[in-house]
């Protein structure tokens, strides 16, 4: 006799997610809301860990874990970071998110986390700019054309409507294609640059999302003019070691997270490892600024750097938003658990 299953979970593919009509404003709103929760102490946020397989340096996995008290949902994300995947026609970052019921421990959903990873990263950049960039910023310089880059540019432009957008990446075909897609989507010309210097020098908002395999000083302090806002988050540092000399405020997503994981990974890890960045040198965590506990930008001339490494809670927040929409629309595949 077959025993009927009493526990089911919902599986949501990327195609399922695309069908739900989630908007840019939905994603930014979910991220900003959970950042305020951080500032109010209404999350449980565990340090990320890395799994580095014996694969000849092809890539590694990040494991992120978090819980949202107000929404009563917990989650775990596993995301790969494999730089050479473009050679196989695959994204460099592919992820799965498991959402769990914190009252029973039962799984609620398995969600394709690839778009979520890209979108929540872009939303974090955008929320940071909302609170830290100079109002009226008109020039964006963006280094990198991987999946998160699209969301950085699109969500930033939705807030600032830039007069000029400059982009570059290591491979000409990558940067040309990236600029063309953005031009068509935004309805404005996106300028392709050959170098990071041409892209970043003098921009109002500077974003570094490079895919380096060894540290290289792509971002130099002379690029930061008064009022500049810089967001670096490449896995391997692309910052000049003396860059912090030109920065008035450093904001992080989470100070503990800044120090967690492999000491080689993180845009400011060389600065942290060398003692050039310490806790006393950090102005605030972004959650405290969004919650109103700490000031953000206080003058038009401040040069502000915002380093975000990725908060598990933002993944859980966006995945939970998607799950709620999917449940309401009965989208996805129900899988028997037990």
What does this molecule look like?
By secondary structure, the chain is an alpha/beta fold. The chain has 2 domains: 8-116 and 313-336, 2-Layer Sandwich (ornithine cyclodeaminase, domain 1), CATH 3.30.1780; 118-310, Rossmann fold (3-Layer(aba) Sandwich), CATH 3.40.50. It has 10 helices and 16 strands. The chain has helices at 14-18, 24-39, 114-132, 147-160, 172-186, 196-200, 255-259, 269-273, 286-290, 312-329, and strands spanning 8-12, 43-45, 49-51, 60-68, 73-81, 93-100, 107-112, 139-143, 164-168, 191-192, 205-208, 229-232, 249-252, 284-285, 304-307, 333-336. Strands 1, 2, 3, 4, 5, 6, 7 and 16 form an 8-stranded mixed β-sheet that branches. An 8-stranded parallel β-sheet has the order 10-9-8-11-12-15-13-14. β6 (93-100) and β7 (107-112) form a beta hairpin. The protein is globular. The mean pLDDT is 94.
Q: Which architecture of the largest domain per CATH? A: 3-Layer(aba) Sandwich
CATH topology of the largest domain: Rossmann fold
Structural class: alpha/beta
Number of discrete domains? 2
Average predicted local confidence, pLDDT: 94
Distance between the amino and carboxyl termini: 15 Å
N-to-C order of helices and strands: EHHEEEEEEHEHEHEHEEEHHEHEHE
Major β-sheet annotation: 8 strands, mixed
For this structure, what is the CATH homologous superfamily of the largest domain?
Answer: NAD(P)-binding Rossmann-like Domain
Low-confidence stretches: none
Total helix count? 10
Percentage beta strand: 15-25%
Shape: globular
């Amino acid at each position: 006799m077959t025993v009927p299953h009493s526990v089911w979970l919902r599986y949501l593919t990327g195609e399922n997610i695309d069908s739900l009509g989630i908007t840019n404003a939905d994603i930014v709103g979910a991220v900003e809301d959970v950042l305020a929760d951080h500032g109010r102490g209404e999350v449980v946020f565990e340090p990320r860990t890395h799994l580095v397989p014996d694969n000849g340096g092809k890539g590694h996995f990040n494991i992120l874990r978090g819980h949202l008290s107000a929404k009563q949902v917990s989650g775990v994300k596993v995301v790969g970071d494999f730089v050479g995947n473009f050679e196989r026609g695959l994204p460099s970052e592919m992820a799965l998110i498991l959402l769990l019921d914190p009252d029973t421990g039962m799984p609620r959903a398995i969600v394709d986390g690839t778009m979520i990873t890209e979108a929540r990263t872009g939303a974090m950049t955008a929320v940071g700019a909302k609170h830290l960039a100079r109002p009226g910023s008109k020039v964006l310089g963006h280094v990198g054309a991987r999946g998160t880059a699209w969301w950085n540019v699109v969500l930033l432009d939705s807030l600032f409507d830039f007069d000029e957008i400059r982009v570059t990446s290591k491979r000409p075909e990558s940067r040309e294609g990236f600029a063309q897609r953005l031009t068509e989507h935004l309805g404005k010309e996106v300028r392709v640059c050959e170098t990071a210097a041409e892209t970043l020098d003098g921009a109002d908002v500077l974003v570094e999302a490079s895919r380096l395999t060894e540290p290289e000083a792509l971002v130099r302090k002379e690029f930061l003019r008064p009022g500049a806002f810089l967001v670096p988050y490449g896995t391997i540092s692309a910052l000049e070691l003396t860059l912090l000399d030109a920065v008035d405020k450093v904001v992080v997503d989470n100070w503990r997270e800044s120090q967690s994981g492999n000491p080689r990974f993180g845009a400011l890890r060389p600065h942290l490892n060398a003692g050039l960045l310490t806790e006393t040198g950090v102005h605030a965590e972004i959650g405290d600024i969004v919650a109103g506990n700490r000031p953000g930008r206080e003058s038009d001339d401040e040069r502000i750097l915002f380093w975000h490494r990725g908060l598990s809670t933002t993944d859980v927040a966006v995945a939970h938003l998607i799950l709620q929409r999917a449940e309401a629309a009965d989208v996805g595949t129900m899988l028997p658990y037990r």
